[in-house]
Design a protein that fits this description.
The chain has about 160 residues and is α/β, with parallel strands linked by helices. It has helices at about 1-5, 20-30, 40-50, 70, 85, 90-95, 130-140, and strands at about 15, 30-35, 50-55, 65, 80, 100-105, 125-130, 150-155. The radius of gyration is 15 Å and the shape is globular.
Length: about 160
């Protein structure tokens, strides 16, 4: 998806410089937060949320199975959904269950396309490749996202 983001014309005037963690912390402080996908910043969100649920296809300690989405997402005030949901074809159902919540699609697999705003998404947190050679080299060396060179993290915000 980051490759697609580098091919499409991303309107960076709709993007903010805050990272996903900061956006979720601001919108989710003392609220119920549901996160679909186990992100590395889960412990930090746990500290500021009234209640935090993590839904995961392959649950880790403290996570709930993805099948709990129907019960959990309607209880949340803030929902973060991994961009991988687009690949595994669960996005439509997850967005339906999250309707009326503040919704973030997050991760390097998130397409920076404003069409997601039509589906109720408030923020799209994705990656744009700026220097493909550096990015490919970093990935081939086993870099995790924060170590990947030649990319730009972008957060596209729905305009109201």
């Amino acid at each position: 998806m980051a490759t697609i983001n580098s091919l499409i014309d991303v309107d960076e005037t709709r993007c903010i410089t805050k990272n996903t963690l900061d956006i979720l912390a601001e919108k989710g402080r003392d609220k119920n937060i549901a996160i679909v996908g186990h992100f590395p910043w889960i412990p930090k969100i746990r500290k500021i949320a009234r209640k935090l649920w993590v839904l995961e296809q392959r649950p880790q300690a403290g996570d709930l199975p993805a099948q709990a989405a129907e019960e959990i997402l309607p209880q949340a005030d803030v929902v973060a959904i991994t961009g991988t949901s687009l690949i595994n074809h669960t996005t439509e159902k997850l967005l339906e269950l999250s309707k009326g919540n503040f919704i973030v699609i997050a991760g390097p697999t998130s397409p920076l396309s404003p069409v997601l705003f039509d589906w109720g998404v408030d923020v799209i947190s994705g990656v744009k490749v700026l220097e493909p050679e550096k990015t490919i080299c970093s990935i081939s060396e086993g870099a995790i996202l924060r170590q990947v060179e030649g990319i730009k993290l972008l957060n596209m915000v729905r305009q109201r």
